[in-house]
Fold this protein.
Amino acid sequence: MADSNERYESMVRKLKEHGYKLTHQRLALARVLSVSEGHPDVETIFLRLQDSFPTMSLATVYRNVMLFKSFGEVLELGFPNGRNRFDGNKPFPHPHVICIRCQKIIDPDVGSLKDMTEEVADITGFVILTHRLDFFGICSDCMTEKV
Amino acid sequence: MADSNERYESMVRKLKEHGYKLTHQRLALARVLSVSEGHPDVETIFLRLQDSFPTMSLATVYRNVMLFKSFGEVLELGFPNGRNRFDGNKPFPHPHVICIRCQKIIDPDVGSLKDMTEEVADITGFVILTHRLDFFGICSDCMTEKV
DNA sequence: GTTTTAAATAATAATCATTCTCATTTACAT
DNA sequence: ATGTAAATGAGAATGATTATTATTTAAAAC
Ligand SMILES: [Mn+2]
Ligand SMILES: [Mn+2]
Ligand SMILES: [Zn+2]
Ligand SMILES: [Zn+2]
């Protein structure tokens, strides 16, 4: 994964560059996102911030995660059911492998989709801006689970 | 695209095989799904059924689209914002190209992901059951649009 | 350091696609 | 034709996300 200090500094830099205030809540969120490894959802992020900010609002987490996303500092993985998940380590499109039992999401080390993206653009006439590739299955932990 | 009569017959066969009643609503829905080409959402399907079934409930559309999905007769494309879309022609995982302006969704003719799926299974230890690949961009119609 | 003020936050209401509930209706086996 | 479990229609409930607004605060100006 990316160096978390680098990621943190990058997020703070973006706040400054765009003229946003460096609130305690934002800096703490940047820290949580930069060290996050398991693609947390807002609830998980919210709970991690509870220690340092017992009065923090869930809306503040939503607002600022989306703010960091608008800077390209976090990747949002939207899901139609269940909560959206966030990747603060690799804030660019990349494949994910999702366990349908325990909801674990990991980043596999596989080749990119550059070739297929170009092929799709050629065939369809679309200007392709981004993509999303998810593999759904059952992780080895869940496979060996009894019951 | 697939032959719509074949698709329709396949859907009706699945209803019979699984012992579900052949209600007028289900048969009409099977017809709409089998001829659908633009990945309609439930609202669109609902409106198309209004002509023949003015009293039909939206819940019935949801219920039975999910029933056909459980038979593997329709592919659901879930979206975290906006409505889910359905493909009754190719009810198996395949790539999609989505226009972020007009929400058009098309099926591009590209090679499969079989190789990458195997690679991911090897690397992660997951048992991969399905996948989802979306390319997001702007279609040529929207690109040439003024304003 | 104090003051000023636009931006940010906390709390909570609103949204909206989807699912659930239940009274009524219907497919279909007998 | 009748009986019965399944299906439908109508509308309430759900739940993640977004919007609203009064209060607080970061940081610029003095
Ligand atoms: Mn990731
Ligand atoms: Mn399709
Ligand atoms: Zn698992
Ligand atoms: Zn378009």
